[in-house]
Write a structure and sequence with these properties.
This protein is 12% helix and 46% strand. With 691 residues, the protein is mostly beta strands. The protein has 2 domains: 184 residues, Jelly Rolls; 468 residues, no CATH class. β13 and β14 form a beta hairpin.
């Protein structure tokens, strides 16, 4: 009996020990913004929480990574999943059939077979990759109109890749295969040999990933993505951070406003104190706004900038005994929220910094692109420079001066300038290019570009009525430097794309009228037609989080011709009231399950008008955008779904101080976002400065 009790105790402790060890799944490495939320069955996920190392992750969890983020998750003793940036996975089916759902992005699975029946599956909406011991990676992206690509690359072992309709191939080590889904068709490619370099480029090891713990600038980005009360929730039309109010050009009285914030933030288990100052100065057509933020902990002197969390933003190029001019300029420009002169459509217009609205020409290709989609978590130094000399002029737009990968321009002439009525007839050519449509790891390989021409003919321009005729034509293309090193190289080759310049089939054309009635009611009516591989308003407010899926839609869609209209109208009084709405709807010439539409709305009312009407010194701003709404019922069932939105309500507690409550949607990827609510205090402590 004694021996039996001893044996029972021994077995109990052994089982307990194993139970304590096998707390799967859990994270072994977390870099940047990695979060999880529990989703029981079909229920909506709960609030996302930061993923902590070695802490058990509940089953039925959804895990997502932000930009430049990475995680390694031990889902079983012999199964490791490496989750790369801007990726979302679900573990809801892991207990039932050993599968991980990849909803978007890129993962690498390392599986060491223990039992004969042991297996691991990676599922997407397009297919299943099933293995019994191997090292492989899966890349999955969805585009518009149910277009998707699932690519599997195998380093060791073999993988059986199957489509949802039963087709399958066996992929051996050193090979890759792809499932293409579009227009209701599903194709699976025969395995193609790949090099070790190609696999490594797609699935960099953690040592190659930029780690925020070493780069404070990058850490600040990760911090603000999660908790900054000023982050926008959408890219906007454009939802943007609090924008200083534009003043009338004839108003030359200098003005100074000061926005400020004092708060605490938790980063990696350390509580950092945060101070933000955002002074804004305007005089006439010139304006400048600064964005000065610092993080320090309570253990160090606040005046010791080397101990700040974002200390590298304040070294101004000095690294020990060396001075780097590019780092100096980058640090300097990141203190500038904006630097501007004039306004769009004036003779001279310049803006540097955070730009909520970049449009070239009539917006047929670049329409309200914003480099502030991730602000303030992601800081970009944009640049706009327009000149109009009468006979000729130009427009230019650069998304980020510190990394000029997305830029465009338009040149126009007025050959009959000075002639009565027809003197304002303008003819222009334009082009826009993105060198990184698939991310920074594949710069120039491929690139996507648009070229086009347009004309603009103002017929009437008087106080009570204005009328312009306009038209655009544009064509898309891609440039491939080395197709063997390009993601989805097999797919691109099978579609007939080659190294070098590839002009895509089809084009887009548009024609319409625009203007205003009694200078208060803007209007625009436009006919649009697209054929082949073309998407209108390609670079819009949502581009930065949808660029990969949008690229795949563009090059693989093979859509039928679409015809439709764009309408825009509302009510606008500068600095007093703005209530506008724009809707675009394109219909296919034959029935396919693809929707191309876009809804943009904006409402803004000034404090002066609200006070005059109601006696309450308050104001409100609402902006909203949503693309590709399946139906009116779907839209009204969930108005916020797949949208960008900002809502701000403010109340003046005294003539120079406002308290505002804002709701914003901030996108982490095309599929994942964060909804934030913040309370801010803004002061115009000097009001108007008489000089």
């Amino acid at each position: 009996m004694k021996k039996f009790i001893i044996l029972l105790v021994f077995i109990s402790f052994s089982v307990l020990g194993f139970a304590q060890v096998d707390n799967y799944p859990y994270a072994t490495l977390v870099i940047g913004t990695v979060e999880y939320a529990v989703s029981e069955g079909t229920q909506q996920p709960q609030t996302y929480r930061p993923l902590e190392i070695e802490k058990t992750i509940p089953m039925y969890s959804i895990i997502r990574t932000g930009p430049d983020s990475y995680a390694e998750i031990q889902i079983a003793r012999n199964k490791t999943i490496k989750v790369y940036s801007s990726t979302t996975i679900s573990l809801s089916k892991f207990l039932t059939d050993s599968s991980v759902d990849l909803r978007t992005g890129k993962i690498r699975a390392i599986f060491k077979k223990v039992l004969q029946s042991d297996e691991l599956k990676i599922r997407t909406d397009s297919g299943i990759a099933a293995v019994r011991g191997t090292d492989f990676g899966v890349i999955y992206f969805r585009g518009q109109g149910n277009i998707s690509i699932m690519e599997v690359l195998v380093k060791e072992g073999s993988v059986e890749l199957s489509t949802i309709d039963g087709k399958s191939v066996i992929i051996p080590a050193g090979f890759s295969s792809t499932i293409n889904s579009y227009l209701g068709r599903i194709e699976i490619d025969e395995p193609k040999q790949i090099s070790e370099e190609e696999f490594s480029k797609n699935f960099q090891e953690p040592a190659q990933v930029q780690q925020p713990t070493v780069e404070p600038k990058q850490q600040e980005q990760k911090l603000d993505e999660k908790v900054s009360p000023q982050q926008p929730t959408d890219k906007p039309s454009v939802p943007t951070p609090q924008e200083p109010r534009e003043i009338k050009p004839q108003d030359t009285t200098p003005k100074f406003d000061l926005g400020w914030e004092v708060s605490s933030q938790n980063i990696g288990g350390t509580v950092w104190n945060k101070i933000l100052l955002s002074p804004i100065f305007r005089v006439g057509k010139f304006g400048i706004g600064l964005y000065l933020v610092s993080y320090w902990d309570g253990k160090n002197n606040i005046y010791d900038t080397t101990k700040w969390y974002n200390s590298q933003e304040y070294d101004f190029g000095f690294n020990g005994d060396t001075f780097v001019i590019t780092d100096f300029l980058d640090d300097l420009f990141k203190k500038i929220l904006f630097l501007s002169y004039g306004a769009k459509d004036e003779q001279v217009f310049v803006r540097i910094g955070s730009i909520p609205d970049m449009t070239l020409g009539h917006g047929f290709v670049m329409d309200r692109y914003s480099n502030m989609l991730g602000f303030p978590a992601v800081r970009r130094i944009g640049f706009q420079f327009d000149l109009d000399f009468g006979y000729w002029g130009f427009e230019s737009a650069i998304a980020d001066l510190s990394r000029s990968r997305l830029f465009g321009g338009r040149i126009f002439v007025r050959p009959l300038y000075g002639t009565f009525v027809i003197g304002n007839l303008a003819v222009g050519v334009s082009g826009v290019i993105d060198l990184e449509p698939l991310g920074s790891a594949f710069e120039g390989n491929p690139s996507v570009f648009f070229i086009g021409g347009d004309f603009d003919f103002p017929i009437v321009n008087i106080i009570v009525f204005s009328l312009d005729l306009f038209a655009d034509v544009s064509k898309a293309g891609i440039y491939i430097n080395d197709i063997s090193q390009t993601p989805y190289g097999v797919v691109l080759s099978s579609k007939g794309y080659n190294q070098g310049i590839n002009l895509l089939s089809g084009e887009g054309i548009s024609a319409g009228i625009k203007g205003s009635i009694i200078s208060l009611i803007p209007y625009r009516i436009e006919y649009r037609r697209i054929t082949g591989n073309f998407l209108p308003s390609y670079f819009d407010a949502l581009y930065d989080v949808q660029k990969e899926s949008r690229f795949l839609t563009l090059v693989l869609s093979n859509l039928p011709p679409f015809n439709g209209i764009l309408g825009y109208s509302g009510f606008y009084v500068s600095n007093v009231l703005e209530a506008t709405i724009q809707y675009e709807q394109l219909w296919p010439e034959y029935d396919v399950d693809v929707s191309i539409n876009r809804l943009i709305g904006k409402f803004k009312v000034s404090k002066e008008l609200v006070k005059m009407v109601s006696g309450i010194p308050s104001y409100a701003v609402i902006t909203y955008q949503r693309n590709n709404i399946p139906s009116a019922q779907v839209f009204f069932d969930d108005i916020l779904k797949d949208s960008t939105v900002i809502l701000e309500l403010a109340y003046s507690i005294d003539p120079n101080t406002d308290v505002s409550v804002s709701y914003k949607r901030f996108y982490i990827s095309s599929q994942e976002y964060q909804d934030t609510v913040s309370i801010q205090l803004r002061s115009s402590i000097f009001g108007e400065i008489g000089l």
